[in-house]
């Protein structure tokens, strides 16, 4: 008997928390503090550090930089540089790795891609460092610019670029946050929420199409 036809003709994956372990809160906070120090601010408020780490918008960035009389573009360049360096160091020293079930993606009978809110250059490093390039036909992270904050998920900008690359009409997006679910819905895609350890108890206002325990279950959904 022939295997069933795939339910979708492409699958897109978030990166952090889906393919690789997410960065620790302490690592992200220290990278933000390093950026403040590089800009001449030795003791930023905890509130401002948390805001820089947790989904900062261009408007909030402007408010924070105004409080310290900083140029937003210059500060953000420092933040992005320190943030990426902290991530690459964690991968290189083994304190952060990829999930074992990532090998399941090789069993998918459709084209795959990566769409992440992380830096594009960081995503490229990860794919090379863990030798994952062969699993994905396309990949997108955001540029290291203030403007990219307007384009990150739940904006559909990078999802749509990946779909165009793959020529996909029916696709599934696999993520670990509500912004992933919302982005998929806005792009007209079905979504999968992977309940990893770091998001085991997360509740959402927007429900995903599917919830799974790991990437093996994603393969099963595609081929069911």
Question: Can you describe this structure?
Answer:
- With 224 residues, the chain is α/β, with parallel strands linked by helices.
- It folds into 2 domains: 10-21 and 97-222, Rossmann fold, CATH 3.40.50.1000; 25-92.
- The chain is 42% helix and 14% strand.
- The protein is built from 9 helices and 6 strands, in the order E-H-H-H-H-E-H-E-H-H-E-H-E-E-H.
- Helix 1 (25-38) packs across helix 4 (72-92) and helix 4 (72-92) runs parallel beside helix 5.
- The chain is globular and about 55 Å long.
- It holds the Pfam family HAD_2.
- InterPro entries: HAD-like_hydrolase_sf, HAD-like_sf, HAD-SF_hydro_IA, HAD_2, HAD_sf, PGP-like_dom2.
- It comes from Natrialba asiatica (strain ATCC 700177 / DSM 12278 / JCM 9576 / FERM P-10747 / NBRC 102637 / 172P1).
Strand order within the widest beta sheet: 3-2-1-4-5-6
Q: Largest sheet, if any?
A: 6 strands, parallel
Number of domains: 2
Write down the Rg.
18 Å
Look up the CATH topology of the largest domain: Rossmann fold
Q: Count the DSSP helices.
A: 9
Sheet-strand content, in percent, reads: 5-15%
What is the share of helical residues?
40-55%
Structural class: alpha/beta
How far apart lie the N and C ends?
14 Å
Q: How many DSSP-defined strands?
A: 6
